[in-house]
Design goal:
By secondary structure, the protein is an alpha/beta fold. The chain has one domain: Alpha-Beta Barrel (TIM Barrel). Helices cover 32% and strands 15% of the residues. The chain is globular and about 55 Å long.
């Protein structure tokens, strides 16, 4: 629905996760009968969960842990793991910075160049755990490093930026833009995920490149400042629904089903369930996982654009380590705010609403429900417990 925001200017109304609710259907189901698995190319995963390509979340060791739990972790090949022989030394340093110097110190740390030999080593380290190896590169750098990654055994490539388009225009002939369609065709049969995007038309154009999956999310994450710095973005519920509609159109045109992956903005199990109900096939999490005891960020998380040399678009946040990856992803939960046993929450939400698998849950009825988070919860808010905790387990306050 469009609204007029001024003479001659209209805008669509968009919705985030807090604005919508999943409506229970006439049927309920045993949670043990619910199937939350999904596939990407030739790979099948027990959990519709990807760990974001963030240095505070994914290392070769944590990729092994999450892979064995049934998910998929994405390593940032332009991150600290591939710039330093001893990445933990730099990661520990980052945890010591006060908030007033964190951004410029991060910029200094990331001036160290990416080393192709470390790209190969880190991928081999992931493969040594016996899990699927996935890693990300930006569109600007993918041609420089993808070959060494594939030779080392990379299984899934993620081409990721704040916004990725199928058509980049530039007058600079010395830096020809990446032709995604040609490049993805060259990589076949390696599955390629591309993103982010936040609209029907961009999602559809990315799907037409031959991508196996599309990341949906521009600026919704706990660490991202893109919406403030650039003023761009679409609330996640609307963005996911729009790109899911593009997936349907693309399937009508080609017969190919492209996975829609919700990237960012999810704090708890309810948000994950809403992302799937809006049309996502899987979710990509960052800060919700960065608080794991095993996470490499030592209690902190920051984004890919936090350390941009001239225009940072992210911030470092504290994440209060308070559980293991297994407890966060699969339980058992010992907190009642929805930040533990995230996949169990998804399974229970689907069972409560009567849906058997993810494709069925994509068709769940939704309702605009701004009172969902507050109705009847005044005692929880006053005492900062349960839903009144507002995801305190996930993101703390940086010192």
């Amino acid at each position: 629905m469009e609204v007029e925001i001024g003479r001659g200017k209209k805008a669509r109304r968009a919705y985030g996760f807090d604005d919508v609710a999943i409506v229970p259907s006439r049927r309920t189901r045993d949670p043990d009968d619910v199937d939350i698995s999904w596939t990407l190319g030739p790979y099948r995963f027990e959990l519709p969960l990807l760990a974001a390509a963030l240095d505070g979340v994914v290392s070769p060791d944590t990729a092994g842990i999450l892979g064995k739990l049934g998910g998929l972790a994405v390593l940032n090949l332009e991150g600290i793991q591939c710039r330093y022989e001893n990445p933990d030394e730099q990661l520990a340093r980052i945890a010591t910075f006060s908030k007033d110097i964190a951004t410029r110190e991060l910029q200094d740390i990331y001036r160290e160049p990416v080393k192709p030999e470390l790209i190969a080593r880190r991928i081999r380290e992931i493969k040594s755990h016996g899990v699927v190896a996935a890693a990300s590169l930006t569109p600007q750098k993918v041609r420089s490093y993808y070959e060494v990654a594939l030779e080392a055994g990379l299984d899934i490539l993620v081409i990721q930026g704040t916004v990725v388009s199928a058509e980049h225009v530039s007058k600079d002939t010395s830096r020809p833009p990446l032709n995604l369609k040609e490049f993805i065709r060259e990589l076949s049969p390696i599955p390629v995920i591309v993103g982010g995007c936040a609209s029907y038309h961009t999602g559809l154009h990315l799907m037409r490149t031959g991508a196996a999956g599309v990341l949906v999310g521009v600026g919704p994450g706990a660490i991202c400042t893109t919406r403030g710095v650039l003023g761009i973005g679409v609330p996640q519920a609307t963005a996911i629904a729009d790109v899911a509609a593009a997936r349907s159109q693309h399937m009508l045109e080609t017969g190919d089903y492209v996975r829609v992956i919700a990237d960012g903005g999810m704090r708890n199990g309810g948000d994950i369930a809403k992302a799937i109900a809006c049309g996502a096939d899987a979710v990509m999490l960052g800060s919700a996982l960065a608080r794991a005891h095993e996470a490499p960020g030592h209690g902190y998380n920051w984004g890919m654009a936090t350390f941009h040399p001239t225009l940072p678009r992210g911030t470092r946040v504290a994440t209060k380590p308070n559980g293991t990856f297994e407890e966060i992803v699969k339980g058992p939960a010992r907190e009642n705010d929805g930040t533990f046993n995230l996949m169990g929450a998804l399974r229970t939400s689907m069972a409560t609403c009567g849906y058997q698998d993810i494709s069925e849950f994509n068709r769940a009825e939704l309702m605009v429900a701004p009172a969902l988070q507050t109705e009847g919860k005044h005692l929880q808010r006053e005492q900062a417990v349960g839903m009144g905790a507002s995801g305190k387990a996930t993101v703390g306050v940086a010192d």
